[in-house]
Every structure is written in C-alpha cells, then in structure tokens.
Amino acid sequence: MNEVTKIDGIGSSVRRTEDKKFLTGKGRYTDDINRPGQVQAYFLRSDVAHAEIKSIDTKAAQSAPGVVGVFTGSDIAADKVGGPICGWVVPCRDGSSTKEPPHPLLAQGKVRFVGDAVAVVVAETMEQAKSAAELIDVDYNELTPVVDFVNADEGAQIHEEVPNNCYFDWELGDESATNKAIESAAKVVKLSVRNNRLVPNAMEPRSALAEYDSLDESYTLHTTSQNPHLTRLVLAAFMFAIPESKLRVIAPDVGGGFGSKIYVYIEEAVCVWASKKIGRPVKWTADRTQAFLTDCHGRDHVNDVQLALDDNNKIIGLRVDTVCNLGAYLSAFSVVVPTILHGTLLSGQYDIPAIYTNVKGMATNTVNVDAYRGAGRPEATYLLERTMETAAKEVGMDPAEFRRINFIPKDAFPYQTQVALQYDIGDYEPHLDKAMEMIDYSNFEKRRAEAAKRGMYRGIGMSSYIEACGLAPSAVVGALGGRVGQWESASVRVNPTGTISVFTGSHSHGQGHATTFAQIVADKLGIPMENVEVVHGDTDKTPFGMGSYGSRSLASGGSAISKAVDKIINKSKKIAAHLLEASEDDIDFKDGKFVVGGTDKEKAFGEIALAAYVPHNYPLETLEPGLEENAFYDPTNFVFPSGTHIAEVEIDPATGVVEVVDWAACDDFGNLVNPMIVEGQVHGGIAQGIGQALLEDAHYDENGQLLTASYMDYCMPRADDLPSFKVGYTNTPCTHNDLGVKGCGEAGAIASPPALINAVIDALSPLGVTDMSMPATPQKVWKAIQESQSVAAE
Amino acid sequence: MYSTKYIKPNSTSEALEAIKSMGEGKFLAGGMTLIPTLKQRLASPDGLVDISGCDLDSISDEGDAIKIGAMTKHASVAESDLVKKAIPALAKLADGIGDRQVRNRGTLGGSVANNDPSACYPSAVLALKAIVHTNTRSIEADEFFTGMFETALEENEIIEAISFSKPTKANYVKFPNPASRYAMVGVFVAQFNDGVRVAVTGAGEGGVFRHAEMEAALSSNYNADALSALEISSEGLISDLHASPEYRANLIKEMTKRAVV
Predict the structure, then answer these.
(1) Contact A634, A494 (CB under 8 A)
(2) Hey, which residues does A301 pair with through a beta bridge?
C-alpha cells in the first residue's frame, strides 16, 4: 500500500490527468458551447485612437438581414449599467488618490484607443452581425492621440478626471536616506532601461456566452476567466446591481490566460446585458485581431536606476524612477502591477539599506495595460539584474561575485526589506553556485575563445531573481490599497465509498491543478489519486474563491485544500475511535488507515466514509453524519521563490542573429508537489522571457495604430528559438504554509529576460557595446555591431 | 468572409468559361493568401473558380528543364525525386516555405501569380530562367514579374505550368522575417554555362529582382570571396518594422555569400 501512496503522492512526477482531453482535441471551451436560440454579438470598434463621437447612425444596421439588435453607449447609459472597476488603487505623493475615470461598456461621447467598442450588433450569425456593423456610420471629431507615455503629461487630456494624463504618482521607501546614500557613495551606477510592451497571446481568444432565464430572472455566463467568482462579484455588484445568486459564472476549459483573463472585460458584460434585452442567449468570441487590439497588454515601463556602492562594492542605496503606460482605461489590477508588485521587489536578493522608488502611471491612447505573467516582478527584476551586471562590469568584478557579496546572508531571515516586504526564508548562494555548475561557468572563457575562432561572439549572463507570489495576506493587501481579500477556499467532499470530490476556488487554465491538487489529497489521505476528482470554474459548484494569478494556486489554494483535508482526518478519527471503541487520542492515521496505537485494530479510510453516510453505528449524539469540510486559507505572508538563471548566447555578427545556446535555471520553489509540472512551468516561463528579450514587441505608431496586430509582425517564440533548458532546484521550504510550497508559474518569465540581455551585452562587450534594449532583434544587434565598429574606426 | 459563389471545374477551358460568367471572379489555387484575405473581408469577389481539379499538378523532365504544373503543391516539389536530382535548390526552397500545412495546400502557380514581394518562389523563377506557360502563351521570367503583386498575366489568363532550366549549380538561402517567417531576404543563385543569375526576394520595393553587380562578380568567379568588395546599395529596398533598407542590403550580400558554395 505504501508504494501506491508514493507513486501518486506529493513529490511524484505524475502525468497530468487533464491532458488526455486536451491532447485529443476534446477540451470544452466557451466557444464550443452552444445554447438553443443563441445569437452572435459583434463589436464595432474604433479605428481611430482618440476622437469625440459626433454621431452614430445605426439605422441601416438595425434593418440589415438577421439583425436582432444594435446598441450603443447611450443604450447602456439609459439602463444605468456600470463599467469595469479598478480592483486596487494607491495613494499619490501629493496626498490624493489614484484617478479612476469611468470605463463605459460601450463608448460614450469619446473613443480612447483603436479597438474601443463603439457599438454592438447582435444577429443570427456572426457574418450577418459583421455585415450589419459595416453599415453603422460613426462621425468622429479626431483629437491628437497620446502614444508616447513618457511624455504623456504634455499630450491632449484623455479623461476629464485625469489631469496631465497621470493616473497616479506613487512612491515607496525613504527618499532622503536613499539620496544621502547616493551622494555619499564611492560609486553610483546609472542605467535607464525600457521594459517592452507585450501582447499576452493566450492560445484561446476571449469568448463569452450569456443566457437570461426570465422565469427566475437569473443569468448564466460562460466565459474565458481565470477567476469566475470575481467575475460574478464585479458583474453582479458593480455593473448590474443584482444579487450574486442571480448570476452563475462558468469558466470551463480555458486555453491560457497569463493574466489577460483575470479582469472583467466589457464584452462579457455587454453579452450579459444583451441576453436579457434580446431574450436570447448571446455569444461573442474574439478573433485574433480583436485579441491583439483589446486584450490587456503587459509591461511597458521605463526605469531610471541609480545604484550606490561603497568602497567595498557593497550596495548602500538604490533609487528607481519609473514611468509606466497604463493605456486608455484603468483595468482591474493595472495600478497594483507597477507599484505594489514592482516597487516592493526592488531589494531583490540583496541587502540594501536604503531604497526609494517613484512610479508614475500614465494614460495613453492605447489598449489597457495590466498583469502579464510575472506582473511587475519581471520589470523589477529586469532593471535590478541589468543594473547588477552593469555595476559588476563597471567595478571590474565577476558578476557572480558581485552578487554574492551583496546577497542577504542566509542567517538574516526573516529579512525586512526597505520596501515593505519581509522575506520569510531564502538561501541564495546555493542556487547561484548550482546554476554556475550546471552551465560550467568556470570554463566559459574557453567557449568564448572557441566561438571567436568560428567568427561568433559568445556571451554569458545571469539573473538572480526574487519574486513575491501566492497573493497574499488579505490584511496586507487591504492596507496597500487592494479592494479584495486574497484568501483561497476549498471544499473537500468524501463520497460514501471513500472517493473524494475537491471543489477549489482556484482556476486552472493550463496549470494542471486536477493533477497537483489530487496528489495533495491522495498523499494526505493515503488513497490512490484516481479516487480524487478536482472541480473548479463554476460558481454554482465551487465555494467563493479568488481564482488563479500571481502564482497563488498551490500556496493559497493548495493550502486551503490541505486544511480541509486535515479537518476530514480529524473528524474521521472521531468516527474511527467510535467504531474501534478506543479513545480519539489513541487513534493514529497513517497510509490510509486509522489504527489504535499499539494494537492491530484498524479501519480503512473507506470504511470511515461509509460509516459517516450510513450512520447505523455512529456517535450521532456528539457528531454530525457525513464527511465534507470547507476551509478558507488566508496566508500570513507572501511566498518568496528565488533562483538564478544563466543564459549563454552566440551572436552572428554578419546577421545580428542571437542564438540561445545554453540555459541553466536553478530555482527555489520550496517543496515540489509535481516536479514534472513545475519543470513545464519553468520551461514555459523561460520561453516567454526569451520571447520578451529577443522577439516580442507591441508597437503602436504615432497615430495610435497597433502595427504589430497579427503574427505577421508580432513575433512569438517558437520551439526552434529555444535551447534545451537545464533545470535544477534548491529548497528552503516556505515557513508559513503547511505544504512548504512557494510558487513556480511566473518565475521563468521573471528570471529570464535580464539573464539573456546580460548575455547579449557580454557577447558584444569585446566591441565596446554596453547596452541593448529589448527585444534584441537581429536588426538591432547588427546595428549595434555596425555602430561599435564605426566608433572603433574613428 | 462575405458569401460568394464557388465553382470547381475539371479543365482550364471550363475554368475560363466559369470566370467569364462572373462579374469579378477570382481563380482559387491553394488559397494561402486569398482565403485569409477573404476571411478578413478585404476582398469580395463575385465568385471563386477553384482550379485544383484542372489536372495541373504534374512534374516532368523536359531535358534542359523541369516542368512543374501550376497546381503542384510545395510539399510535392520538395519531395519530388526528379526535382531533388535535377535542381536540388528548388526542392530546398519549396521545403522551406511556410509550415507543413502551408506546404500541403500552397501551390507553385498560386505563389508566382500572386508575386508577393516576400514569397520564395519568384526568386527561383527569375534565377532559373524559367518559362511561365499560360493558357495563351509562354512568358520568360524576365518579362513576367512587373512589380510588387504585379505580373504580366492578363485578365483571365491562367498559369498552367512553369519550366525551370537546369543549372550547373544553384542554391537558395533565405533570412526569414522573425515573426512571419516569410523571406525578409531570400537569394536564389544559379550558375549556367553562360553565366550566373542572382535573384533577390523579400527585399525590393518592386518585388523580386536580379542583382546585376553580383551576377557579374559571380560570373567571373563563382566564389563567395568575389562578393567581398561589393557595396550593396540600399536604394529601392523595403523598409519596415523588422528591417531597414541598410540591414536588408547587408542581408542580401550575406545570404548570397552563403548561397555560393
């Protein structure tokens, strides 16, 4: 029996049980679901970035074939339906709060980005809806678009409520102490970096199917969401003013999110509204162009960094001034990403006695910017790790040694940073050492010389990152401006035969929760994994939960499941004590059996389950029948995964092509439940990071047109862009959750861009190249080489 | 897409009848460009005449040339023993177009008739002194490509086959656009007894073109070193997000050097 437990349990690389349906094309996504009488919605979108709407004529569209309704912003306003809300705000330096302009479901008076929804056409078929939309005549008075976010304060005002196009001007840390450190420093390393704008590109485009039941006046919404309960809360409480019980939200199989499916978008709300208006189910599915234009984008920062060093090359201060682009409207977590999830990470893995940061969040005539895999932490890690590498080179130290002397020592935990966070545990030298060993760091110069013989420039670069994830203690979230709790829920139902149904508030859109969560339950109860079913994504089935983002599902959701299982075990012991006629204190639970200590008297878990539901011999006077427990877990701190990634590249000077030739990733995620799934997450994260560093760039022209609105121009990473990754681990188990787990979903995307850009710069350092912006495209690298050669020639 | 009529005739003469019966009809070959265009509502033809049933997909050895039917799919060219033996560079080119799905739908004739400035095939047509056979005439490669997305084809003229001259040596090397993987610069070099032809695709504002200076240099010395001293002009080269004219000029020289082996 022991063997079975080990095969399925925590720490086993069990194959993903959910993959059979995905790999055989049997996944059931929102767009796969159809309801009788269903009609299709199509959104007419603005093709100009910034304009007043003088008039909209929908007459011809109303009478077009198949059309059942054409609606504009005035219809939404007449029904007093609210728009999406901002879920987290921060205070400004001048004492004011974040400026929150309204975001109407359909444009009212003004359009603010290319893709802003102006009208919705509902018709029998999508083609009819599209044809009718072509008949709508919108008369625009075009205004100057604001695209350059760094100088957005000088541009035309986009919202009445947002003076100087600045949503917020936030600060964190001790400015005077930091400036003093910079003034007194032996050396100040200065660097300006840009974090390029990215399009999330989930494989499944967003989709919504809303249905209204006029008999009990309730709605059902199928939607592509990472957090169906939050979607229900926002729609019910803030948009439609209906009881939550009158809205069921189902997020069935969801094909990737990367953050972009956290928020409530206007399209799903309009479908809900229109389903009642029309009295028929309304479906909308984005095509890829709409996904590019209207999914929230990610990143888009510029950061000015000053790192102060003393005579011994120890860091004594860090100042970071950031301007970030939040786009046309404030999306749900757009404010927290560049502030709380960015500024608080600026200490990295380093003991920095003084830190100050200022972040300005700007409005522009581009689509909203919000969380994208890593959300704030990649931006913090990028600026810090680029600066660490630059500083090491400037002071003539090996980058690894420069990091090492500045690491927070392992005996300093719990470590209070100067930017609010307190790291519970960590040990940074082991993952640095191991990553260096994995990539054979000490022999790198031999490889560089060998490459040079072939005419290639070879470089190596590293990044020692930290991230805060497992969002997070609710009280801390509240104190920092968050408007939601950040606990997670679980309900564990033991069925009469001893099989288990787990209902989780987390949501899986690719992460493999059905496998990982089942392993936790199987391990704790000593039963085979196939006896455990995981249910998620339906507000009528699962307890209220916060969904999945910020690498929180295992640390928060898994911990809730663990707690619920503990309650099951405690109650089962009471039942076992009764059946075995022993004292509860004498009952031991091990390997799926309840044993009276020191005897051979035992009851299997299945027998206890049956007794609970067929309570013929049961302590009914002191114990309720049944075996089902809920748990809500509110973490006491963030979890802090860390690690070191080292990239090795070769650059062909004739073309500027950067080839990633080797990669070592050594991460500390605490305990691993399913190492294979963790490794997959690391691979995927690095792939996205390589995409950011070498390939991806969302580019708006000066008129606010997205030039990279298809795969013809937006470059996604492909398998042949990636090396084989060497993946390793160290482990300092999290101190404040039962499982000792941290989070692994975002780490790869956080760690990899600076490692790769550091490697590119290192490769070109013999030419005198000291900087390179992302993405390091062939053209850009070639140009840098040309310019360095022309400088050399002068 | 807008709804439209679809006809699949069994011969080119029937196809011509069919297209004449429509107002603004379009021939449909592999549809690798036309179908996405229709799906995005960027075109609204009165009808589509699918010529995949017109028996235009043979490959034959004509002595000095390999003749390939217009509806031959890229995958068939890539896998053809005849092509691989006589003009391996052409098989290599076909094997590098798009992805597997595209290669199993896209056709030689469709690509050449469309004359996309980033397509691979036009460079082979131009470098391999190809003859484009239509339902009315035979057109020499040098006369065929008349500008970006422009050819000598007249209304209701169908490409039936293309004959590629067998070179003594040839090679095709492309630098793909990182995003689309179309040719950002593709160079087809072909050596014949009477000289070398170098055709460049992906780079010219006027579509595919021959490069006279490189042809002259390689005709006198078929060696990459012969190109070292050449300055490649960036005039007339495409400028876009991914490559400036100067970068494209550099890639033209570099890809040509790599093609000459």
Answers:
(1) no
(2) A195, A324
pTM confidence score: 0.96
- Please state the domain count of chain B: 3
CB spacing of B1 vs A127 below 8 angstroms? yes
A713 touches chain B (CB under 8 A): yes
B198 sits in which H/E element:
strand B195-201
| Dist CA A443 CA A393 (whole Å) | 19
- CB contacts under 8 A, A 651-690 vs B, are 654-656
Residue A569, SS3 per DSSP: helix
- What stretches in chain B show pLDDT beneath 70? none
Q: In what order do the strands lie in the sheet with B65-69?
A: B59-61, B65-69, B159-165, B131-134, B138-140
A486 and A470 Cβ atoms separated by less than 8 Å? no
Which residues, 6+ apart, have CB-to-CB distance to B243 below 8 Å? A779, B177, B184, B185, B251
Q: What is the distance in angstroms between the Cα of B147 and the nearest Cα belonging to chain A?
A: 21
The conformation of residue A155, written as its DSSP 8-state character, comes to S
A560 φ, ψ (degrees, to nearest 5): -65, -40
Alpha helix (H) residue ranges in A113-172: 126-133
Note the pLDDT of residue A7: 63
Just give the CATH number of A298-471+637-793.
3.30.365.10
The DSSP code sequence of A720-749 is GG--PEEEEEE----SSSTT-B---TTHHH
Q: Is B234 on the interface with A (CB under 8 A)?
A: no
Summarize pLDDT for A658-711 with one digit per residue, the tens: 999 999 999 999 999 999 999 999 999 999 999 999 999 999 999 999 999 999
**What CATH number is given to the structural domain containing B26?**
3.30.43.10
CA-wise closest residue to B163 among B70, B29, B51:
B70
Query: Hey, where are the domains in chain A?
Result: 2-9+487-633, 33-143+203-256+261-294, 298-471+637-793
**Three-class SS of residue A384?**
helix
